[in-house]
Amino acid sequence: MSALFMYKEVNMLGSLFTDIEKLKGVGTARGEKYRKLGISTPYELIFHIPRAYLDYRAFVPVSQAVLNDYNVLKLTVVKKLAPQRIKGGLVICKALATDGTDDILIVVYNNVYAFQALKENETYYMHGKVNGNFLRKEIMAPVYIPSSEKMLIQPVYPLTQGLSVTLVRTAMRQALEMMKREPFETMPSYILNKYRLCPLDYALENIHFPTDEDAVSAARRRLSFDELLKLQIGMSLMKSRSRRSTAFKMDSSVSIKPFTDGLPFELTEGQSKAVSEIISDLCREIPMNRLLQGDVGSGKTAVAAAACYFAAENGLQSALMAPTEILASQHYNTLSSFLEPFGMKVCLLTGSLTPKKKAMLREKIVSGEINVIVGTHAIIQKDVEYKALGLVITDEQHRFGVAQRAALAEKGDSPHKLVMSATPIPRTLALIIYGDLDISAIKQLPKGRKPVNTYAVTGKLRHRAFGFVKARLDEGRQAYVVCPMIEESESELHAVKTYAEEAANGDLKGYTTALLHGKMRPNEKDKVMKSFRDGEIQVLICTTVVEVGVDVPNAAVMVIENAERFGLSQLHQLRGRVGRGEFESTCILITDNVSDDCVKRMKIMSSTSDGFKISEEDLKMRGPGDFFGSAQHGLPTLKIADIACDMELMNEAQNCAREILEADPMLEKKEHRTLKLDVMRLFEKEIIG
Predict the structure, then answer these.
(1) Which long-range contacts (CB under 8 A, 24 or more apart) does 616-620 make?
(2) Per-residue pLDDT tens over the stretch 530-542
(3) For residue 184, is it left (φ>0), alpha (ψ between -120 and 50) or beta?
(4) 590: part of which helix (H) or strand (E)?
(5) Which among 685, 683, 679 has a CA at the least distance from the CA of 635?
(6) pTM (two decimals)
């Protein structure tokens, strides 16, 4: 049963769930525009949150306007000039205006409708970019309201072509009037009182039509708390739902000691603790649902191998899914080296295999002949069946999304699930993104691993930096050079193909180089990586495809061009490709961006090798929306809450969610009914039985 159906079933919010076209002034054509914004009902419209506000109270005289910047001016239109048509069919409209002391020209490009709405001898508040000089100023394409407007704090909405702020505000007022006629509140009064939250109707009124800054602040706090609370409750309910019994409860008397004794190294304290937590989970009647989080090179694969060994000794199969063939191949090689000495069989199943090879592997998998299956999304295809899949492992989970993880889990009868991530995530954010998982974190590096020396330089020192690279190459080491682009463009950024050619004939002349980028065929990538790993290539010039790739212990230098183009966590991931052997390693960050933000980021990278500390700084600087780039991690979209800035509020929401679910695990009490429906609406799927 969907949340929308349940709302209607209990006769709540009827008119708010009619089609958006029912609002006066919307109609079919504009309704399509609203739907592009994800708005199909008045209810969804009232939750279309402004992305910013214009404060028209802060107007300045024309004489004090900051040139080449945005200003608010209070102007009277003196005379509208005739529109001018220029090449390309564009129309320029101009009007002479004054603030009573100084004149200014209003310029509007290709928006005759907005210009026609201006009336001579009328006064307006205008917000726009002021250009010109001391003697002659222009305000370009201003947004304006009449001086008679009482609400001088105006919302700025995410829009699409064909929808203006005025149209949205008119429709918004109608939707809020509907809410007044059919009032509702999603939060029980005891929560509002305990956490000092304003009522929902007040919050929605003042997020769209605020009376002052305090009203906006109270509204934003309430709506942010709502989102964070519903997110926490939803993830907790998903976690509870996964706690059904598993068909693969394992035997705790099976010893892991032969495996650990056979390793060529001693597990770190963090690795040992993670193995212990995982084995404890595997011996329970409910399926394991655990995140194994560790820094680059912290030894997560050895922990995963221990789990696969334990499952195999219990007569069960394990499957590990990686996002790329390169990473799948690395896991296959590592797991094979760990497990095959014990007679366990490991296979690699990827999309690039021949149909004949795939068919042969499928037969061995379904017969149970293979203990551990490693691959890309190919291992979740319908034609791949398992004999007894007891353990499912996904690597870099946020690159898959919830659906693919679920598809792999469905291959077994409620198998145990282990998620690995080499992206250190602040614990608070991890609790949200992986809210349905228990968390194990490995924070120490294996013995013998040395921190990578990191330096940030400008392009003026590029030649000197490559002199350092060549000195390391002459010692027998290898190097990576990472660039952020893969195709020629008009951008100032180095295109990898051109860069590789210039480097091979310039700074790296006389050394063996090769190019690696994401648009190469899988077999081409594998061939290049194998040659690099085998020492046939001295310098690999590449894109971030090496962020997760084959380990090359002899690679001791990394140069990252245009370092400002990468987030801190991604720079840390890239840096982790070197320093994996016995040699002292170096990472050189090259950037000509000298902004305060970039300088701060380069200092952070140069001063610490702690991935968890770096991730905290990355989250503060970029916010959770960009933390994973374009990755689909399966979370509902947050419209107003800012996880990076609202840490205190999130802690309150986490505490509140815990209190609610302890008292009412399935939200069955009357006072939680609307909250339950709202949780379902946020997740847009049935997460509650």
Answers:
(1) 616/426, 617/568, 618/567, 618/568, 618/569, 619/426, 619/429, 619/643, 619/644, 620/644
(2) 899 899 999 999 8
(3) beta
(4) strand 586-590
(5) 683
(6) 0.61
